[in-house]
Amino acid sequence: MAKNATIHRCSECGWETPRWAGRCGRCQAWGSLSEVAPAATARVATSRPATSARPITEVTAQEARGIPTGIGELDRVLGAGLTPGSVVLLGGEPGVGKSTLLLEAAARWAAGGRRTLYVTAEESAAQVRLRADRTDALHPELYLAAESDLGVVLGHVEELAPTLLVIDSVQTVTAPGTEGVPGGVTQVREVTSALVRVAKRRGMAVLIIGHVTKEGSLAGPRTLEHLVDVVLSFDGDTHGTFRMVRATKNRYGPADEVGCFEMAADGIREVSDPSGLFTSDGAVAPGTCTTVTLQGRRPLLTEVQALVVPSHLQSPRRISTGVDPGRLAMTLAVLQRHGQVKLHTRDVYASTVGGGRVDDPAGDLATALAVASAVRNESTVQRLVALGEVSLAGEIRPVPGLARRLDEAARLGIGLALVPPGAGAARVQPGGGLRVVEVATLADALRAALAPEGGAVIPLRPRRGAR
């Protein structure tokens, strides 16, 4: 049978198939397959290597050590700063502040006496200068070029020999002689491959801004994330000021670290202690409870608020902001079945303070206590945190990183922590007078958290089998 003369490639993820289909077999996108000519297969001849292979014990690791950028939260996510020759891809929603962050990083890098080239392919040089004036990101070693042609960009690199190159953005740079439109699969792959080759050859760090799709993933082929060394995502509500940088891939450091920032009129600021942003000041009100979530390896004190009102609908509303909707629905079902809290005729609204997110299973117990507090119109115990996953049987299950969570709670002056039984709380020695109480079931947690007036904790009933 003769081979097909053409292949069909998905414009979203790069998946290839010999026959056309209406839907991509990998990313399930509709109408994304287009006919392209197959690449010619060439035989590769052997050649003499430029440098001989050496024993690993004779290879120095000094060249792979990172250089601090001057932005502590960004260095925290990268590991130890920018590694010479590394390529970092930063993605995020439009308007979240990607260009502002990298312009600030470029200015801090140039302030260290290192030549920096900032290439903008989306804005004019005058627009970037206005932003630099507003954020105080001006330095003589920071060079600016408004170019969208890859050949011209590489020409600037050869002329200036920078130690850091910033590309804003990779979807708007075109590679001459390559098929496809700017931002297409082939163009993005070729531009990124060229930048990676130049970075490795010159020992130059490269920061690339990438667009995201409407689903929130990086636009372009999946191989784009495999080509680069570090993949960062810049998250945050565009209507708020809080931002987070997360590492989803990092060849030079941890891939579960989080950096916190705050957008201001004069640029972007680091937030070294963000726990206070997600809690409200003043006395504890009915319908509120505090938990400690783990964002990467960083514990954050987060307050969950709930509002429960009678419903006039056949199917009561379940609306959440910052709380995972699926976990909220499951927690409400367990609360009604095992906590004797009637919710089938009431609308439930759950939210977090300050734009925080509670998608950690450890926040289940705090969500349940906040809802129960709103139903009974009773406040929880003052200075309380609740940590635990609520199972469908009404049991409180252990959560990871309990020691870090309790240390953060003690540091912020929390007085009482409700934790799962057998979770190692006895081995945790937090300071600040934190009292740790183990609760086995949701009913035990409700009795311990919803104290009478005066703030005394209701004694827990002995667990079955306890002496």
Automatic annotation (TrEMBL):
Q: Name one Pfam family in it.
A: Zn_ribbon_LapB
**Name of this chain's protein:** DNA repair protein RadA
Annotated ATP binding lies at: G92, E93, P94, G95, V96, G97, K98, S99
Keyword hit for Metal-binding: yes
Keyword Membrane in the entry? The reply is: no
Q: How does the entry describe the domains?
A: The middle region has homology to RecA with ATPase motifs including the RadA KNRFG motif, while the C-terminus is homologous to Lon protease.
Q: Where is this motif: RadA KNRFG motif?
A: 249-253
Source organism per entry reads Propioniciclava soli
Which classification does the entry list for the species?
Bacteria, Bacillati, Actinomycetota, Actinomycetes, Propionibacteriales
Q: Lon-protease-like: where is this region?
A: 347-467
Superkingdom of the source species: Bacteria
Gene name of this polypeptide: radA
Q: Which protein family is it in? A: Belongs to the RecA family. RadA subfamily.
Briefly state the protein's biological role.
Plays a role in repairing double-strand DNA breaks, probably involving stabilizing or processing branched DNA or blocked replication forks.
All residue ranges annotated as the RecA family profile domain in the record: 63-212
The UniProt keyword set, sorted, is: ATP-binding, DNA damage, DNA repair, DNA-binding, Hydrolase, Metal-binding, Nucleotide-binding, Stress response, Zinc, Zinc-finger
